[in-house]
Amino acid sequence: MENSAIKFSQFRLTKITDIKSNSIAETLTCIEKNYIDNIDIYEMMSYSSSFKKRKISNKLSNLQAYTTNFNKFSYWCRTQIVTATRQKDRDKIYNKLVKVMKICKSLNNFSSMFAIIYALNSVSVTSFDWPKNSHETLRTFTNLASTSESFKIYRKLVCEAKEAPFIPFIAVFLHELEFINQSEKRFCNPSIDVNFLRHWKQYNALSDLIIAQKRHYVNLKPNPRFIGCLNNYANILNDSELWEMAN
């Protein structure tokens, strides 16, 4: 078994600030696209149907893989900032992530954009002092991720992006599917086997995911240095560890 200290040392050999922001965003987009394309529509339906039971089976493995990667990347971003020992290093990493977030938006990679937004808005990260202009930029992007009116602003972004390749934020689909399952019974009445209205609403809720899976990016290349920097998320900290280091 590898020594964790050695792995952490290797992790630090390549810093996020040493890699071009465009290259990082493109690598994230390649990674996310792979996860998104592997999700089967039936996985989404199965997850929402068993939402209250919170059962994740092998039938949901691709959806679970996406969710795990999303969460780990978001915590990786937090870890990068909080574990920096000097304020100027934290500033550099913070500003780098802001740049990557902007480029992800321009690439219509809304999934990575959300992951970074959540990271920069986390309690451990906001406990530090940041430049005013950084606050303003983050506030703008936080508004894009607002849950008000069922993610109205985000949905508009997706609508404008659908003619080009885009990577949606999967949680929005799951939220909508759960609402449909709560409002529409599986069967209309004992004499009818299928509630067609329920399935029609489910299909409409997932139509953007279906479109996204058919759109493909060209000329995007993952950067091996950044993938090495991620180090398979081996050294991410949890919330309590992040809070302890931040304070």
UniProtKB/TrEMBL annotation:
Transmembrane segments: none
Domain Ras-GEF: 20-246
GO cellular component: a single term: plasma membrane
Xref: Pfam families: RasGEF
Domain of life: Eukaryota
GO molecular function: guanyl-nucleotide exchange factor activity
Keywords: Guanine-nucleotide releasing factor
Entries under SUPFAM superfamilies matching the protein: Ras GEF (SSF48366)
GO process annotations (BP): Ras protein signal transduction
Entries under InterPro entries matching the protein: Ras-like_GEF (IPR008937), Ras_GEF_dom_sf (IPR023578), RASGEF_cat_dom (IPR001895), RASGEF_cat_dom_sf (IPR036964)
PANTHER family: GUANINE NUCLEOTIDE EXCHANGE FACTOR, RAP GUANINE NUCLEOTIDE EXCHANGE FACTOR 1
Protein name: Ras-GEF domain-containing protein
